[in-house]
Amino acid sequence: MEHFRKIHRQIRTEASDILQSENFNRMKEFVQHGNVTVNAHVMNVARYSILFSEYLHISCSRKELIRGALLHDYFLYDWHVPDEENPHPLHGFYHPGRALRNALEEYSLTERERDIIRKHMWPLTLVPPGCREAWIVTAADKWCSLMETLHMYKGHGAVLQKVREG
């Protein structure tokens, strides 16, 4: 339990501006996989990115790893609901670019953070990640997405769905 608290302290320390952002907190309104919200998903990815880097003894910039993980799905729309602005049928291909554009509007990003966001959907993004941090987030994202889709990790998005159906 202490290790879990340590990870959360690291996330709060390195990304307090992101965690307090109105748009970041809006991601609690959108379901990502299964019944997990986008906000919960990116928090899971940040936690698992830290765990993977520690477990595999991969030296990396912890700050950029955390910030890139939190912003990798910063697309700010519900990809389950089609609309004219967002290409939902091809969401997997297009959302990294949208997330990067949104993040750049609010934050000054390092090249590593940009690489994490832009390439986390590899191999759908044809160019592979270019730094360790991006590879770690890509792996953590795949793991978390699988667990969430198979309902092995349950979120609170089901509550949102019931409220919407109302």
Q: Approximately what portion of the residues adopt beta-strand conformation?
A: under 5%
DSSP, total strands: 2
Low-confidence stretches: 157-164
Q: Which series of helices and strands comes N to C?
A: HHEEHHHHHH
- Binned, the helix content reads 55-70%
The mean pLDDT is 86
Termini separation: 37 Å
Number of helical segments with 4 or more residues: 8
- Described by the principal axes of the CA atoms, the overall outline is globular
User: Which value, in Å, is the CA radius of gyration?
Assistant: 15 Å
* Oligomeric state as shown: single chain
Write out the strand line-up for the largest beta sheet, numbering strands in chain order.
Answer: 1-2
Structural class: mainly alpha
**Most strands sheet:** 2 strands, antiparallel
